[in-house]
Amino acid sequence: MKKSHVSFILAAALAAALLAGCGSSGSSTEASGSKEAGSQSQTQDTGSQDGSGSGTEGSLSGEITFWHSFTQGPRLETIQKAADKFMEENPDVKINIETFSWNDFYTKWTTGLASGNVPDMSEILCKLSEKVELSNQHQLRFSEFGTRRRFSIDVQETVIKRLNDTAKYCTGTSNCYFAMKYGMKMMGTHPHEWFMFHGAQFGYKHANYMALENWVNVYDGDLGIALSDTYTSGIFLSNLSRKQAKLFDGVRCDSGNEFDFIDKLVARYKELGIDATTKTIVFSNALDFTKALEIQEYCKDKIRCSFGIGTNLTNDTGFAPSNIVMKLTQCKMNVNQEWRECIKLSDDEGKHTGSPEEVQACLYELRLAK
Predict the structure, then answer these.
(1) Is 353 helix (H, G, I), strand (E, B) or coil?
(2) How many CA atoms lie within 13 A of 176 on its CB side?
(3) Which of 264-268, 282-286, 314-318, 332-336 is the least confident region?
(4) Are 157 and 175 in contact (CB under 8 A)?
(5) For residues 138 and 119, which has the higher predicted lDDT (pLDDT)?
(6) Could you give the CA distance from residue 347 to residue 331 in angstroms, rounded to a whole number?
(7) How many CB atoms are closer than 10 A to CB 68?
């Protein structure tokens, strides 16, 4: 059956169930339809040209994404029950329900209508299948790092479930909840904030060294991928001691030119008398799978590599992702000390974080000022 017919039937079924649910909860039908009862549905027609699906002629088939803004209570439960019943009666149809606050729903819905572009989960999963196939074919190891810039929690969960089922070389997820829910390995590395705190407290020259030493004291060898770019990777590599290079499993590259970083890190390991092929670089700077494969090829016979891929997994929807940055702004060792400003540099031009005055002071201290 064609897409428009499936969408109409589903919307009618859910609307009928919704009205029934509102009536049973004692609220008026007019009130339920005034502001919150918005929905969006899409399907992919997977039947043959004569309109038949995988079952009998004229049966429904495809995948539907249904948006609504009922965040709690009997209306939400009624929508889920209606969807479950619809899927039971039409086994070739899968319904993905996404719940938003009214403000988020209104923004996403009106933006989608105006542009003619609303998220289609079947398209997202189709793209995901191609990425998984590339990873499986080339033994490309990656983790899902997509929480911060995901389109929605429902999209992220759908992606993670599919990765868990089909991606042979997906090593885990940085989302603690989904790692627990789906029995996946929790993946993570050092945060910039750890190094920013040490820079504010102990000075920028000593920040990397002190941060790595204290990390070992706290975690006793676990979580052994060191973050390199808080005060630029060049400063990090010059501060990296032989003991630390031996102790840590590898380094994360989160900004700058990945290929230059590979050469510089391999050279630094060689200076310290360490076999770089026993170490790992985790790349996490706005990656897609095609670029990750290019980096993997460059790393071959030089150093091990893995990838943290986020937005390309959880927001490959056609919508611009939110530009969310979370960093320390101030810190103090205890309540008796004064606040100290925290800043972060970057290997990418124009991405330094903090007041211009403190950034300039840091650049001067590290002899990076132009």
Answers:
(1) strand
(2) 0
(3) 314-318
(4) no
(5) 138
(6) 24
(7) 20
DSSP calls for 62-81: EEEEEEE---SSHHHHHHHH
Give SS3 for 296. helix
Look up residue 221 and give its two tokens.
């060898």
Q: Are 341 and 354 in contact (CB under 8 A)?
A: yes
Residue 282 CB-density burial (10 A; 0-12 exposed, 13-18 middle, 19+ buried): buried
Name every residue whose Cβ is closer than 8 Å to that of residue 256 and which is 6 or more positions away in sequence.
229, 233, 285, 346, 347, 348
Long-range contacts from 120-126, C-beta under 8 angstroms, 24+ separation: 120/42, 120/44, 120/65, 121/42, 121/63, 121/65, 121/96, 121/155, 121/158, 122/42, 122/43, 122/44, 122/62, 122/63, 123/44, 124/155, 124/158, 124/159, 124/316, 124/317, 125/63, 125/158, 125/162
In one-letter notation, the amino acid at residue 172 is G
Residue 287 bridge partners (DSSP): none
Helix/strand/coil percentages in the chain, nearest 5: 50, 10, 40
Q: What are the C-alpha distances in Å from 18 to residues 38, 69, 101, 203?
A: 11, 12, 17, 60
* 136 contacts: CB under 8 Å, gap ≥ 6: 166, 167, 168, 169
Q: How far apart are CA 305 and CA 252, in angstroms?
A: 10
The closest alpha carbon to 196, from 344, 353, 337, 355, belongs to 344
pLDDT of residue 145: 96
d(CA 292, CA 135): 9
Residue 351's pLDDT band, with cuts at 50, 70 and 90, is confident
Helix axes 3-24, 74-89, angle to 10 degrees: 140
Dist CA 309 CA 303 (whole Å):
19
Give the integer Cα–Cα distance in Å for 98 and 70: 10
pLDDT at 102: 64
Q: Is the pLDDT of residue 357 over 60?
A: yes
Contact (CB, 8 A) for 262 and 282: no
8 — pLDDT class (breaks 50, 70, 90): very low
In this structure, are residues 227 and 195 in contact, taking their beta carbons and an 8 Å threshold? yes
